[in-house]
């Protein structure tokens, strides 16, 4: 290996690793790889010294109560890192008998891979932990085979992937123990939620692996990044995407017929708000109206109450000026199943122009709002994904119906000319239009020969 060279300035002092600046991309990548290998080899050498320090109980001459604590102070590293180095060192050291004969390490394949720089300390930690978690009979009779297998795959796998493989091996060799672990996980399950002072809900959970797998399978597609639009990537953070996916998951649950009912009704979110505030036109901050109240006793703006009331089984309890119940939202404000089916057939998941939202939980939006007398029917509703539903309300897009299909009129801030944009259509409808000219016309029975 060629060491990284330094140049000298006019005073003869080292000027720095200028070769890193002058090398090609290929040389840069190769040197980074070489240095990683060198650092791994040096780590293996350090582990040999740590093992010797362990044999000498060098920490007893200090105030440290154990070798990991002594090493932590010596190297200024985290306790977990110090404990890992000591544990690995004890398994990969070159041992010697009382007569000076060299004995192979407890984990010879792992030691060999470390000494070659083929694997790092994290790989070795995974292997050591994987061996320690094997059942007693496997540690007695199959440890050599298991260690060799893990060390071999460690040369090509990341530590995280190697950890999954080690777990699979443990499940294979200790199925009873693995089942007990899963039962213990189920017993340790917990989920807590509370409302913070700012009104946000805080959720903390520990799920057993089965429940966790269900959760991941459901939320991952719902939390996927939105496709790029004109080269612009989804601006949401991973946390925001997960929160949006969780919201969609809740919508799916609320919309499911199997959701438990109370008093004959499905679970509902209620909003208490003054009728005039709900009808207030949205556009300027002073016209948003007084806030409403959710069933969690937390406030919600009139603007968001109006958006939420477009769809989902929300029960708006409209209050008069004395905050007394004035009316309860009509049940037919929410699009029934047959109308939602027709909307999905006409609009797809989202009718907004250019939307390529993955399948999720679309929301039925009233073109003329329900509180303004708009009907819950096909000619007054469009399907929108949650993102574009919020966009439409926040940016004040207008919608008109043309030949039974929605057209979206952007606000002046998006398009000063406010040119109408045709709404998207479900693919089956597009396919029928594309193939219409290819469908043979019915033959006239009189013209048959």
Automatic annotation (TrEMBL):
> Gene3D superfamilies of this UniProt entry?
1.10.30.50
Q: Know the name of this protein?
A: HNH endonuclease
Query: Per the UniProt entry, what species is this protein from, by scientific name?
Result: Saccharopolyspora shandongensis
Q: Which domain of life is it from?
A: Bacteria
Keyword set includes Ribosomal protein: no
Tagged with keyword Hydrolase: yes
SMART domains tied to this protein: HNHc
Q: Which CDD domains match?
A: HNHc
